[in-house]
Structure formats: C-alpha cells, structure tokens
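Fig. S4 source data, part A: sequence.
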Amino acid sequence: MRPIVGRLIRYTLLMLAATTSFWFSPAPRTEDEYCGTYLHLTSFAGFTANCDGFEFMESARYPARLLAPRAVRQSRPLFVLLGSAVGYPVTWAVQGLKAGGLLPAAAVAKLPAKYRPLLGFYVGYVLLNYAVLLGALLLFRHLYYRLTVGRGQPLVLAALLVFVVSNQVTKAFFWTVHQQMFTFLVPLLLLYLALQLSERPRWRAALPRLAVLGGVLALVYGSFALVLPVLLYGLWLERRTVAVPELLGRAIGLILLFALPTLLWIGLLQLQGVAYYNHEAEAYGQLVWLRGLWQQPLPVFLALAGTNLSKFAATLPAIGPFIMLALVAGGLWHRAHQSGPPSLSELVGLLLLLLVFLAGLGYYKERLTFMLVPLLLLVAATELARRPVGQLGAGLLVAAALGWHLWQVVSYGPFS
C-alpha cells in the first residue's frame, strides 16, 4: 500500500472516530440554544443541522437563486456551485438506493419534511466538509515536518492532529451544512503559500496566476481574501532586484488580478439587473465598520473600536489551551538554549495577520477565532522539535489530546 493511501485511510478513520463520538454528546435542552434542527439518530444520539444549511442546500439545488436580488449566498457563489457539483450525483445515488430498497422509505420519513428532498445535497455538503478537513490534516502534516526540519515525532504529530479534529468547531459543524471546516484549511494554506514564496523563487514568478486563483478562492470562502496580503509579501521579497516604482506597479496589478473574479461576478449580476449583495457585510457589518474611521468623529470611532476589540478579546479564552501550549513549548526551548530550525517569521507573521483580521471583522464568534489554532499548534510543534520531548513526553501529549477529546464529547454544547 502506498504511503499516501495509508495516510488517507488513517486520517479518515481519525476524523470519523472523533466526529461520530460527538453524536453521543449531551443533546440541547431547549431550542433556544441553537439555530437549526436537532436531528435525533436514536434516543441518546444526534446532532444539529445548522439553520444556515438550508439556504446553502436550496441554492445548490437551484443555483439560479444566486442571481436573485439580495441572495444570502451571493458573495460565496463557488461554494454553492461546489454543493451542486457534489449534491446532484449524491442525490441520484440516494434515489437509486431508495428505488432498490437499500434505503428504507421509513428512514427518510423520519427526517423533517423540508430536509427530505434535500437529503442528497445535505450528504454532498458533509462530503465537502470531509474533503476540506482531510486537506487540512494532510497540509498540517506536511507543514509539521517542514517546520521541524525532519525532527518531528510521529506521536507528537498524532496528538496535534487530535486537537485539529476534536474541538468545538468540528463538534458543531462537521455533520451539518456549513463552511466552518475552512477554519482549519485557510490558515494552513496561507502558511504553505508564504513558505513557498519565501523559499521557492519560481513561485514568485507565478504571482499573477496565484492572484487570480486567490480571487477565485475568495468566491468560495471569504477568509481566502487573506491570500492577497500573502501574495504582496511574496512581491515584497523581490524588493532587492526590482525598482520601487515597478514594485508598486506590480502590487497594483496583483490587487486588480485578485479582484478580477469578484468583478466579473458582479458584472454578471449587473447583466441580470441585480445589484451585488454581501450578506456578511450587510447583516453583520464585517469589516465595513472600519469605514467609520473617516465617516464619523474620531472619538466615536475609537469608542466603537474599543467595544469591538473587547468582544474579540472575549473569544480568546476558547483557544486559551492552545495559546498556553504554544507559550509553554516556547519556554521549554528557551531554557534548553539549543539551535533550532529556520526562521519562523512566516508563521509568526501569519499569526499577526490573522489577529488583525479577526479583530477587525466586527463580527466575533469563538468558532472564527479558532482560525488561530492550527498555527498555534505548529508553533508548539516547532518549539518542541528544538528540544525533543522523548517517548514519555510524546505519550503524555497524546494522553492530553485524548483527554481533551473526551472532554469535548461529555461537555454540553456548542450546537451552532
């Protein structure tokens, strides 16, 4: 068996073991504690179908809904089209299973009425969750061994992967229709891109193509907008060989190329007589609140900024264990006074970029702040590799990870 096949199997089993165990977590006591529908698998097992999922599924079923005025998912059209591309084949498979008697009609009848015609799209989106999280695990493994320069220990990696697949984000969103699995993939992809641009000059030659690709990804999930500052970092690395005026011209070109897919999408909507609608900005004020810096008196804006920063700070305790793990691992290395792997400037820089981005969103949820967790785990991994913890230390880390997972299973919530 090829290593990659074995790895895919192991990571799939890890995800299934972690996420199916959440079915047996305590059920919500009242409907006020979640947005959506709690689906009972048995009298003692179930999970929440998030309220956002219904619009994703209906839009995947009828993609023309994206062209309607003020369509809720209009800012993320490519994720909906991915849902269509996966959902229709799964729907046909479900229909075949029902026709062949392999999927009892009684089982489908137990679903809430509005979900029955959308079952194939529901399953399709869950498969997308699986693919995104699997991609995050594979990328985490690559970055782990890359940052530790081959000094990484398999047991340490295994423990860190448990933290990636077992947390309040996967608990609430893996089995539902949502985009939260990108919480883990996006920061890892950004780090991979930053390292490639730093260490592989030929990647910097491909910056225009990467800008267009990044703009396409931004139509899948909004946080892919952070690809642009990473690309500008790659351009900045060329400063010693390129004159400043040319550098500025290239930067403007990258920004325009990155914006091109969105501009084309807006143009298509205009041809349909529809004004582009960004639900996240309109409903939650994501990022647009920053316009107040020049639209209102400075004291008023500073008061609003202080309020928003306090709201963001209130989400940080949710990732407190990971912050502590990174800090403790760093402290162990500094006491060891050993030489370590190459500079961590890209990793630290991305942590700062994400902090600024999350603080500036204007919409604050613990699940969003979890974007910092994969990078914090890599900080801890890199520091631990500078002073190998040995089999006993690695075993203790694995035990801590399993204890963390057990706590996630037995704890109450979150549900959405």
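Fig. S4 source data, part B ends here. Confidence is low (pLDDT under 50) at residues 335-340.
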